[in-house]
Amino acid sequence: MPGRSFHSQHTSSPSNRIPLPQAIAACIAFAAFSVSIAVGISAGNPGETVLTRALTAMALAFCGGFAVGLVCDWMVSHETRKIDRAMRADLADRAGAEVGLDGLTGVDVIEEADESLASRVGQSEDPSASLSLREKKAA
């Protein structure tokens, strides 16, 4: 396909991936079938007996492998959730550490002139405090 890279052609999307329990079950079933065929032929058993036993072993191994796959899938999802929670807690701790004592992040404090500071003090505090500030400046 022109215009598409090798990586984009061969990456699998979530819709076409084989779930872990089925993949494990299939691998174990194939191994059991292969071993049963090899052992049956090497023992000199008739072909019908070898094939029947191999298919039975494959079916039983698929069931057992599926159970093993479910356990593995549960363990992977459990560990993934645990790692996700730890990462979220770490990000929250980092965000909390970035906040300074004044509650602002990334803000430069601009020095204000004494006059504007005195006018604000006069607005926010009682008049006697403003008066004492003016007396200190006058002295």
Describe the protein.
By secondary structure, the chain is mainly α. The protein has 2 domains: 17-98; 111-139, no CATH class. 74% of the residues lie in helices and 0% in strands. It has helices at residues 6-10, 20-42, 47-98, 114-124, 127-138. The protein is rod-shaped and about 115 Å long. The model has no long low-confidence stretch (mean pLDDT 78).
Helix content: over 70%
Shape: rod-shaped
**Distinct helical segment count:** 5
Task: Round the Cα radius of gyration to an integer and report it.
Answer: 37 Å
Report the β-strand fraction as a percent range: under 5%
In total, the number of domains comes to 2
Total number of strands: 0
How far is it from the N-terminal to the C-terminal residue, by CA?
86 Å
The chain-level mean pLDDT equals 78
By helix and strand content, what is the structural category?
mainly alpha
Task: Enumerate the spans where pLDDT stays under 50 for 5 or more consecutive residues.
Answer: none
SSE string, helix = H, strand = E? HHHHH
Largest sheet: none
